[in-house]
């Protein structure tokens, strides 16, 4: 009897645990002429595949090197936020068969083009899960860490009309490297390609089709990373500003007429950080966070998992707050 009561109490405590993720996780794979990649999808408890219910937004979340979807979700606590705010998360997964460190191959030209390579596999998988789980294709957002952040830049440049907003955390700008040999140099010292050139190539990849509104982006980076050093943050920022200038009317003419503000924050018990904000017609469309002391880790993440640092501001909240300005919670 005592054993029964103990077991029952343990189960009850488990079920009432505030950290328990409700919702469910679905696994699947997407196949095409470009190959195959597996993925996981987190669906919050408010999700319904019935057409009588409103379709929920979806965030594409791209893990970094030496991570997988499970460790990335746990470190960022993204599924907990998804349950709380009511959005789905689509986690494409790299295979060690294609990269022994589980990095996305952002540096290969075939993966830097629309409808080819890993870009097509990720976007094809997105189309599949959006249809399968009745997600809102008009409320699609994109984020990534490290090599996943570099892929965010690729997808943002080549598929800008597919996303309401994007976020990179320790990523590189589009076309930062063009092969595995130059990638190593880029990771440590930044790209030798000018953001102006990268943005022109990005507009070419987008299909030279103007977009009515800018593509909003939040960029997060640490000042102390041994890899993906701080220079990448300003390169991503510059490339996306120029890319957005192309997007509005197809011409590089500074027509966005944007304005820049700078703020410094020194919160108690957290790393200090700077925020550069670029606004168009009074609305922020690019924010760049530089976090002092942060190495190559997700800021504010759960350090039970590698590449997370709890002493920085919560990057997941920063990103989701930014996404909310562009329809995540509407």
Automatic annotation (TrEMBL):
This is Esterase. GO terms for cellular component: extracellular region. The keyword Signal applies. Pfam families: Esterase_PHB. Keywords: Carbohydrate metabolism, Hydrolase, Polysaccharide degradation, Secreted, Signal, Xylan degradation. It comes from Halobacteriovorax marinus. GO terms for molecular function: feruloyl esterase activity. It comes from the Bacteria. The keyword Secreted applies. GO terms for biological process: xylan catabolic process. Residues 1-22 form the signal peptide. It is found in: Secreted.
